[in-house]
Design brief:
The chain has 250 residues and is an alpha+beta fold. It has helices at 6-19, 61-73, 106-118, 191-194, 229-246; strands at residues 41-42, 52-56, 80-81, 85-90, 129-136, 141-144, 154-160, 164-169, 175-180, 185-189, 197-200, 209-216. Strand 8 and strand 9 form a beta hairpin.
C-alpha cells in the first residue's frame, strides 16, 4: 500500500479552495444571465469583427452605480499608486511562469460570468484575472501591449463613470480610434492583442474619474503553493516584478 502524504494533500486541497470562484448572491439591481436577455448592442461602425468589438450599455445605470459602490466602499484591497493612475489587481499577478490563482471578489465575479455567458468572450476559458484602473484629471495610459502571459490572447475592458477613446496602432503605423462610452464593453483579441499596441491619450480621456475593468484569462502555475514559505516568497517576488512592469516612466 502506498503511503499517503497528508501534508501535501492538505496543501493541494487548500490551494484548490483558494482558487475557487466566489459565489456571492447578486444584488437585486444585477440582471441575471438568461437566454434572450439583452446585454448591450455591438457598435458595428467602431468594431472590426471578430477580433475587436465595442458593446454599448453592457451594464445598466443601476449596475454601474452598484459596481462603483463595491469598488470604493465594498472592498479593502490595496491600491497601487502609479504616476498617472492607481490600480487594484484581482485573481493573481500574471507571470511568464504562470499565475498563482487567487479568488476573485464576488462583485467582480458577477461581471465575469455575464461576460462569459453573453457570447462576447467567444466561448474561451473563464476569466481568472482582473486589472482595475482608476484614472483622474483626464489622464490616460501610454501605448503598450498586454504581453504573452494570457491564454487565450484576449481582453475585455468595461468602462465605468466616464467616456474615453482608445487608440490601436499596428506595427506598420495604421491607427484605429475606438470610442469607449461609459458602461460599454470592449473585447479585443487576435492581432489586436498580440501585434497592435493600444493606449488612451490624455487628450482622449474624459470626465473627472474613469474606472477601467480589464478582464483576462492568465496562464496559471499549478505547481506553486501559497502555503509554504518558499511559495509565499515566490508569489511576493512575482508581485513586485509585476508592479515594476506596469509602472509608467515619469
Amino acid at each position: 500500500m502506498t503511503a499517503i502524504d497528508f501534508r501535501l494533500a492538505l496543501l493541494e486541497c487548500l490551494d484548490e479552495f483558494n482558487a475557487a470562484p466566489a459565489q456571492d448572491v447578486a444584488p437585486s439591481v444585477w440582471r441575471p444571465c438568461a437566454p434572450g436577455l439583452d446585454f448591450g448592442t455591438v457598435d458595428e461602425a467602431a468594431s472590426d469583427l471578430p477580433n475587436l468589438a465595442v458593446v454599448g450599455d453592457f451594464v445598466s445605470d443601476a449596475e454601474e452605480a452598484w459596481l462603483r459602490d463595491m469598488i470604493y466602499d465594498g472592498n479593502e484591497r490595496e491600491w497601487h499608486h502609479l504616476v498617472k493612475r492607481r490600480l487594484q489587481n484581482w485573481g493573481g499577478f500574471p507571470h511568464y511562469k504562470g499565475m498563482y490563482q487567487e479568488q476573485l471578489p464576488g462583485w467582480a465575479g458577477h461581471v465575469c460570468r455575464r461576460l462569459e455567458q453573453s457570447g462576447y468572450w467567444n466561448g474561451g476559458p473563464a476569466v481568472n484575472q482582473i486589472l482595475l484602473n482608476e484614472y483622474t484629471g483626464g489622464r490616460g495610459i501610454a501605448a503598450h501591449k498586454d504581453g504573452p502571459n494570457y491564454d487565450p490572447p484576449a481582453a475585455a475592458v468595461l468602462s465605468l463613470l466616464s467616456d474615453a477613446r482608445m487608440v490601436f496602432r499596428s506595427p506598420d503605423g495604421i491607427e484605429k480610434r475606438v470610442n469607449l462610452p461609459r458602461k460599454s464593453l470592449l473585447v479585443f483579441s487576435g492581432e489586436y492583442f498580440t501585434d497592435w499596441t493600444h493606449c488612451v491619450p490624455d487628450c482622449e480621456a474624459r470626465g473627472p474619474v474613469r474606472l477601467s475593468m480589464t478582464m483576462r484569462q492568465a496562464k496559471v502555475d499549478a505547481n506553486l503553493s501559497g502555503l509554504t514559505p518558499e511559495g509565499k516568497a515566490e508569489i511576493n517576488d512575482r508581485k513586485q516584478k509585476w508592479i515594476r512592469a506596469v509602472t509608467e516612466a515619469r
